Each structure stands twice: as structure tokens, then as C-alpha cells.
Amino acid sequence: MSVNIDPSTQYDLCKGKCNYDVTGYTEISSAICSNSGYELIISCASSNITCLFNNVSYTVSGIFMGLGSYVLYNGYPSQAYLFILHSNGSDMLVTVFPVMPNPATNAPTGSNASSDVTSFLEMMIAVCPTSGESTSGSFNLPQLIPQSVFYSFQYDGAQWIVYGIKDMIMVPSNVFRSWTDIIEAPSWSVLIPDASMNIFMNPDGAKLAKASHDSLLYIDCSPTDTSETTIEQPTDSSNNQTTSWTIEPQYIFIFCVVLFLYVLNVGIKKYFQPPTTKETNEKETKEK
């Protein structure tokens, strides 16, 4: 038996102890792509690309892609795998994705990760088709991580994170075939044996980097009147760009409350304030 990731299985939930924070992932601008003979290896020149798992910090060591499957997906192996290897000196963290050729088209489908992986495979095929050869390029590591459920377990002294079949990396079938022509499948099975290990599921997925301005409300002060009369905003003479503002939501709320109280006060005075002496005398005169 091997580890089998089956979405229909009721795995124990694990959020706090399986938190996967990848806000420290950045683009690998000087990635070294090499052919080991049976794997595509993308190594990092920088040691500053980090993540947190269970509040423990790990540094990305490299990305590896080869033929075979570390786990089963709904009872079936994937044709290839991609994993991110992390280390902190004493412990290891492995993040695994299934990789499959796309039989329907010669273009990558699914996530942006498919495009990046496909580009590296094409570069490997063209530049380093022989074992031991290498080249360099850039790899967008943050795009590799989806906002999706993942599974976690411990094996062979390492923490493992596994993404399911719906997050597989699809590679164009023609590129996949050319890649398999220049590497060899390992002579051993990479499947992880199911030693009755506990598999946990984090339904919230990884913590991804978000834009710092998400908490602000952006107001575009462009005129909406379609007539010939236009109102232009002040411009910055240094760069000749239109000035715009960001207003925090709490100030808009305060303004609305003040406006509402003002209108309410005017209404109360108009309809509920007792009549003045002049108004009373005029009314009595009319009645006489």
C-alpha cells in the first residue's frame, strides 16, 4: 500500500499545526536549471527565499521534477512529480505537486505554474539535453502555490505537503514527450509506503502574499459627465500625472454618519418644532 490522496476521504483537519505561510516566496531571478539524468533541477542562488510551516522557518533549497509519483491520487499515480525542497539545517519540508501531460492540446492549461514549468522544460530540452548540462533563467515561485486545500503528513524524518489532483501541473503533451526523451525514469519506485501514517488536511490552504493596499478604498476622481464641460484634477508638475486619492473606509463611514445626523436634525426642526408666537397670531387672525 502507498499513500493515497482521495478527496472523498474524511481526513482529520489541521489548521494551526499545518499552517503553510509562503509570503516569503519570491521570484527566483537567477535560477540554475540542470539535467541530472533523471530529474530537472531548479536550484536557488539566494538563501533568502523562505516559508513557515507549523511556525517553523524553512529555506528553499531547490525545485525538482522527474518521472514517477510520490503518492497516489484517487488510487492512481501521476506520470511525473514536482517538489519544492526546504531545509532549516536540521529538518526538511517537501511540497509535492502531481504533473501530467495535457492530452487535449499542445498548450499548457490550468494554473500560471504550468506556463513557468513548461518554459523551463523547453529550455532544458533545447539547451541541456545531456545529463550534467545546465543553464540559467528566472522562475516565479509564488505562482506555483495555489490557494487550495493541501494534505500533510510526516515521513522519513521530513514534513510533507501534498497538493491534490485538481492542482496538478499540466504540461503540453509534445513538450512532455520531448522531456521524457532526454531523462530516464528512476529504476526504483518513489512511491511513499503507507505505514498507517496519519494524513491531515488543511482546507484553508497556504497563506499567500497579498497587496498592501487591499485594506484601502480607491476612488477614481475622473468626471462622469459626458458633456463638453470637463473637470480636470490637479496634476503633479514633476511627473505630469493625474493625482488620485486613497480614502480609508472608516472616514467615509464617519462622513455618512455626520451627514445623516445633519439631515435628521433639519427634519426634526421643520416638522416637530413648536410654532413661534408670530405663526400663532397669524393663524388666529385667519380664523377670525
Structure description:
This protein is of the alpha+beta class. It folds into two domains: 4-202, Carbonic Anhydrase II (Roll); 215-277, no CATH class. 21% of the residues lie in helices and 33% in strands. It has helices at 112-127, 173-182, 249-272, 277-287; strands at 4-5, 12-13, 20-21, 27-35, 39-43, 50-53, 56-67, 72-73, 76-77, 80-87, 92-102, 134-140, 150-155, 158-163, 169-172, 200-202, 217-219, 235-236, 241-242, 245-247. The strands form four sheets. Strands 2, 3, 4, 5, 6, 7, 10, 11, 12, 13, 14, 15 and 16 form a 13-stranded mixed sheet that branches. Strands 1-8-9 form a three-stranded mixed sheet, with no helix packed on it. Strands 17-20 form a two-stranded antiparallel sheet. A hairpin with a 2-residue loop joins strand 13 (150-155) and strand 14 (158-163). Helix 1 crosses helix 2. The longest helix is centred in the last third of the chain and has 24 residues, at 249-272. It starts with a strand and ends with a helix. Mean pLDDT is 78; it is low at 211-246.
In short:
With 288 residues, the protein is an alpha+beta fold. It has helices spanning 112-127, 173-182, 249-272, 277-287, and strands spanning 4-5, 12-13, 20-21, 27-35, 39-43, 50-53, 56-67, 72-73, 76-77, 80-87, 92-102, 134-140, 150-155, 158-163, 169-172, 200-202, 217-219, 235-236, 241-242, 245-247.
